[in-house]
Amino acid sequence: MKKVFAIAALIAGVTFAVSAQDKKPEVRQEVQKERKMKVDHQRKIKSPEEVAKLKTDHMDKALKLTEQQKQDIYKFHLDKAKKLEVKREELMKAREVHRKEMRAEHETLKKLLTPEQQELYKNKLAEGKKFRGSREGRSFKHREMRHKRMDRKMPVEKEVKETNENSSNS
């Protein structure tokens, strides 16, 4: 009787595993679409008033604020959001100035090169863009794996040092 239940459980487990693997790519795509929509929604630049209201409402839900606290916290968040908006605008202007400088430098450099060298230079720039694009998606995952490997190595090295110290003291 136990064997029959064990075999039935094994068959059910294998069937479940196979069916779960079949649906995995579809589910993964749906999850990715949902995440992208959520991130796109969050990236829309909101006015300082909207930001202050959202943050105040969030704090109110978590902390059950009084009306006076809500007003004070709203003013605080509004002031902070306005300062952040000014900084964002300054950064955008600085970025645009930097881009213009880089374009001007690029044009000056192109004038110094022969047409053949310009073509080679253009190809090198295109290669660089392609390389940068290929490493964006995997950087976090590989960084995470490197950290895990480093964490595994650290205790081993400490143990080796301790054993060497103990052997020299004996």
Automatic annotation (TrEMBL):
Coiled-coil residues: 74-101
Residue spans of biased composition, Basic and acidic residues class: 123-139, 152-164
Keyword Translocase on entry: no
Listed Basic residues bias regions: 140-151
Signal peptide: 1-20
Protein source organism: Sphingobacterium kyonggiense
Region of interest (Disordered), residue spans: 23-45, 123-170
Alphabetically ordered keywords of this record: Coiled coil, Signal
Annotated TM spans: none
Protein name in the entry: Spy/CpxP family protein refolding chaperone
